[in-house]
Amino acid sequence: MTTSQLRALYFLVLTTLVQLPSSAAEFRTWTTSDGRHETQAELVEANDSAVTLKKADRNVITLSISKLSKRDREYVQAWLVEREQSETLSPGIVPDVLGEQVDLLSMIDPVKDTQAGKWERDANALVSARSSRSRVVIPHAVSGSYQVRLVARRQMETGSLNIGLAVGGRHQVLAIFDYGRTKRSGLAWIDEKNEPSNCTLYRKPVFTTGRDSEIVCTVHHSHLRITCDGKTIIEWTGDPSRLTLHPNFKVPSDRLFLETVYGSHRISQLQYRPIRESKFRQYRPRGNPSPADSVALIEHLQGHGSGFLAAPNLLVTNHHVIENASAGDLKIFFPEESEFVNVHGVLFEDVDRDLAILSLETQRVPLAIAYDGDVPKGESVQLRGNPAIGGGVTLRNAVVKGTTRSMVRVDGFDFLQIDASIDSGSSGGPILNELDQVVGVIAMKATDEGEKLIHEGLARLDDSFKKKSGQQTQDGIAFGIPAQDLAKALDDVRGMSAKEAGRNAQLHENRVVFKRLATLAGIRLLEANVNVPDEMRTQAARVTAIRAPDDLLELIPAQPARLLRSALQSEDIQNTIALLQHDMDKHLNTIRSSPHLSHSIIRDFNALSQRIKAIEKFAQQPGADYLRFSATMTRFQRDVTRLMTNIKEEL
């Protein structure tokens, strides 16, 4: 192995530890049963009678299974079995199962069901007359969990649309959209507070005048979420007894209603579907949303950081906090609990945004998110986390107060800049406004190099940053990932199928194992080089003096080799190796049994692990023959590089 080859290998190892590409589609050749036609495509859906394929040009085709070759039919059957297994073992994502759809719009009689003001029919739509308040009660009882979908159009610039919802069987709440001059939205009343004073306040307009918008309200016993055109605008979790209607409303507790205030809206669709099964059916939150209860300490073998509940059973943190830890190694400690909560899987990772979302199970109430992303300059905020203050001491759920300064744009991404002093370990904690809404995720802190470090990447600023860089921190400036980016990530996770969630969780585990194997490979190759006896170096000098060195391994000189050998035998490096090898056999067994991986990548993982063990054994007894040593090491280096490249391409 020449010096350039050695550098190439170490560069591959180091770049592997920084970032891995996203998962690639599995394209294969599909053949018809008569063998006359072939196509390259990815399998995206299948059942017992047909398959749906997506070709490289993104065109989608559907074929009958009977028209496929025997090999392809066997592949589809194996794929269906794997999907069933993955859905059974999915880490925390179980989509709602909706019942039969009921058309509520056709049930409404504007004369009989109007309680205030005036509603009337216009073709197939229901339209409210412009008045101070127009209310119509929907003549259909609801119970348990359900989903309401309506398509509405605001017909003039002023006026709000309100939806009365039944929650928890006998409680009610009013969802308000675009009320007043500021067009604010939210829930009224929560703890006898209306939307400007509670954590559901949404400050940006929801409707566009003259254009249809789809509103979907998903209601469970202690959780409700409302989206507009697929984007979450209101979410609330808690004891339904905290929800009330204003005493002026006289609506039965099992009925829904529509209301417009100082305006006119056209409702062209209104549908109701009961939820038969739900991931929330066992979810009974304890207490009220509170940063003191919902911010967690995240620990693993290589460090610690912070995180917080942002939705039921979903914990948010920075990507760099968890990127080198498997889900099984992560321990989540909530305040006043000595026992940790297990992580089911890492469902979402955004390296560029330094954001991650984990799946777990807890009855704690998530924090409210500022889904509008509104962060006025000069607003008072608080930052919560678990900073390390030295000497092995970590402050639990520490609070730092600050003031929003501005948005800074770095490499195409916006970051919230705050006047506040934070320490290592706070990464991943929430930034909260005065309504206790999350307006950002703590991502990094300022250092002596300031803006330069921003460009060098958020992942550098983890728990070990000061130790790695030897630089001192400069108090006074903190940076955060804006809430609108967090909101989009949460919606992405909610939209995942069970199979997608399982695949993402497995992909994180694969990346962690790969990074550990890549680092071990580099260490073992280095060990073999520095362990050669001095007489081999004398041989190497004679051989390279009469033979072109391009195809020979360049040995590390004696003095640097002694220093490196001593460093590799140090307690710190040995501890690092132990961490890299921790539960490796268990992780490799998980990879071998994963339904989300191709046979080729499983084979390459196994081969890479075996090569590393062979290199470790060889490093202990490198022999005394330079040419044999050079040939063996060159083969090891070539095999390791090939296997790492193959695995990285699939991850």
What does this protein structure show overall?
- The structure is a single chain.
- The chain is an alpha+beta fold and 651 residues long.
- It has four domains: 3-19 and 498-650, no CATH class; 27-93, SLA1 homology domain 1 (SH3 type barrels), CATH 2.30.30.700; 102-277, Jelly Rolls, CATH 2.60.120.560; 288-494, Thrombin, subunit H, CATH 2.40.10.
- The chain has 15 helices and 34 strands.
- Strands 5, 6, 8, 9, 11, 15, 16, 17 and 19 form a nine-stranded antiparallel sheet that branches. Strands 7-10-18-12-13-14 form a six-stranded antiparallel sheet.
- α1 (3-18) packs parallel to α15 and α9 (498-530) crosses α11 (558-568).
- The protein is globular and about 105 Å long.
- 41% of the residues are buried.
- Mean pLDDT is 85; it is low at 1-25 and 446-474.
Structural class: alpha+beta
So what's the overall shape?
globular
Q: What proportion strand?
A: 25-35%
Architecture per CATH nomenclature, i.e. the level-2 architecture of the largest domain: Beta Barrel
Based on CA atoms alone, the radius of gyration comes out at: 30 Å
CATH class of the largest domain: Mainly Beta
Average pLDDT value? 85
Number of helices: 15
Multimeric organization: single chain
Q: Measure the end-to-end span.
A: 27 Å
Fraction of residues in H or I helices? 25-40%
Low-confidence stretches: 1-25, 446-474
- CATH topology category name of the largest domain: Thrombin, subunit H
Number of domains: 4
Number of strands: 34
